[in-house]
DNA sequence: CATGAATGAGACTTCATTCAT
DNA sequence: AATGAATGAAGTCTCATTCAT
């Protein structure tokens, strides 16, 4: 705006841009390493090295390794949950086809992104850092569960689905997809398994559960 | 049972008897702590303390913490897989009811036992110790997957089930139950969740998937 | 000496300057302690303490106690051997007087320096770390033996010395002087011995052996 | 003597014999290991194992590892010193030939026996256990030095030897032979050295020094 | 006497965190 | 703001010594 600002800007444009990008770069590096090796087995130097900064710089942005962990978990969630809520809010008419399409797309995108590792991180570390449990339940589990519960409820109300325990059905639908993300970052990273084709499984599983929910009860 | 065993028992001096029980006690303690805190965050002294021995004694039985981990993973698996194979081998006639009964019982018992924690341990540590991947795949994943695959195959051959991808179906059936065990030792250990009733979910999920597999394809 | 070095020195911040001096300080401390107490009986903390740094700093410079040992042995040798080679290379004319002067000076200086302890270190530790054997033989024993062997050979060729086994003569000349260094760091450090006056013995022994080599063979 | 003793004897003749042999077996094992690996780096179990007994038994005979070390050093010395004194006491007539014969025989036998390792042990450990210094000086160094000093004195008195510092001459004579024993248990145990033929060197060195002492002063 | 299971102090080494530059 | 040298608490593992059998 004024000349001094202009000078400051032109003085360090790259530095400023890098400085602003630092937190994201550190979070990316931390996520990758925490997911791969576990929180306790990841050294602070490794995170800094992967983010391209020195060890000291890491501590300029996060006061401790533990705070970095919490930031990682908090960061890689919010946007996606909100996005799912928006997508389901627009559904009108038969709920099953909409769920099929929307869930497949959402989980496939998540599976393919580094954010899929957050599940492993939460599973692994939540008992050592109870604050994480509360945060994760409030910010992720509760909204997502409620979202899907409402969708299934709508399907039952409309007669598309038969009446079963809604909470169980949500879990039947979602737990294997979470498990798939866990697998990607554990056994799946060690050895390929021809029996498990992730994209096919995501679609197939959603179909299977929605079919299981559909009228009439068989067997 | 037989007299020689009885004599051996009463003959066995206390030292000898304790020595024989040590490995099991150490494995129990190690499983509980590794599952709760993670391998890297568990101190060798803690394991020893929980097993009621000194730190040095632990190293009399396992040459390193890592070997202890491997022993834990190898130990809490074999018997249960074999038992499941035996149970399914006896099935004749309609396969769906047998699966319902047998799977429910097997998973409920596993869920309630400390062995359920091994899943968390494998998920968490397999990338740091690649040996574990091979062992686990060969000794647990492969046999169990083959077992269930054969059962579903029989159901399709007899017309009980419609034809879907068998591998996916096995995963749809099993992954949520593994996820349930993971949950028990992570979030579930931090906060009760009234939406998830483990025993109800085990039965409900098995029903849901088997229903989803049943003829005719709905929707 | 030159201006750029002077500038570099005065420019160098304290941290940098200390970092450059660290290896030498650590090697000095390690030599003193390893020679005094033995490698196995010296604790890493002691070395660090004597060098004026913390335990962790030691490991910033040497990755393990064993590598520190190897560095100590490698360090306190090279210069002196090279210096001896240079001194003997200049000899022309009668070899005996030159040897008398040069050997006396060289061994007296060595005896008085901490480097004399390296002999004890090698004697003591070589069987536990076979790498040391190869290094020491190639870098110290072989060059030094060859050097003296050539000198005695010259003396025999010129008729100054009578013909005896050259290797034995080298050993007769050198082994007591090494033994004197060992003594300084073992029994000699515990109790004074009026019978052994180091400087007198160095000169006396060299004379005795060169006299023993001189023409004609007596007795 | 009496019947109970007879019974005891016939009761456990083998055991008694082994029990009496135990201290010697333990000392042999300890000497070999202490010389090879050093005192601090030798584990008590290793000594017991090499002696064919259990770890506990070692402590029945020696109250601590340190006491075992002292016993080892004290044990492998006495007889040989006494024997040397007896041999030199008988000398009459020219002393040089007698010294040549007697010293060669004595050092060759010592070099070939495990007792040669004691020198390394003393050199290595004397600073950690000052008691050893006093014992070794009184029991070994002083008598042996006095013995040889008297012999050289006789040679000078009779005109066989020219007059030099007697203490230095004793050291010139003896230190290389000690050094040879050290070498056998350090570098010599790691790599053969064709330049050093022990038996040839023992004889050659003794000749060289006695020649160096002989009349007239050359050079 | 002899054993060997058990102990726990103490060694080496790592790594989260600090701070002078 | 950024660095990286330095620290020292804490962890894994060893081993001299004890003692119940």
Mean pLDDT of chain A: 89
Q: What is the third-level CATH name, the topology of the largest domain in chain A?
A: Tetracycline Repressor, domain 2
Q: What is the share of helical residues of chain A?
A: over 70%
- Runs of chain A with pLDDT <50, length 5+? 1-11
Instruction: Tell me the fraction of residues in β-strands of chain A, as a range.
Output: under 5%
Annotated CATH homologous superfamily of the largest domain in chain A: Tetracycline Repressor, domain 2
Tell me the number of helical segments of chain A per DSSP (H or I, 4 or more residues long).
12
Rg measurement of chain A, Å? 21 Å
Largest sheet of chain A: none
- The second-level CATH architecture of the largest domain in chain A is Orthogonal Bundle
Highest CATH level, the class of the largest domain in chain A: Mainly Alpha
Most extensive interface between two protein chains, with residue counts: A-B, 63 and 63 residues
Q: Looking at the chains present, what oligomeric state does this protein adopt?
A: homotetramer
Key attributes of the depicted protein:
Arc Repressor Mutant, subunit A, mainly alpha, homotetramer, 219 residues, DNA-binding
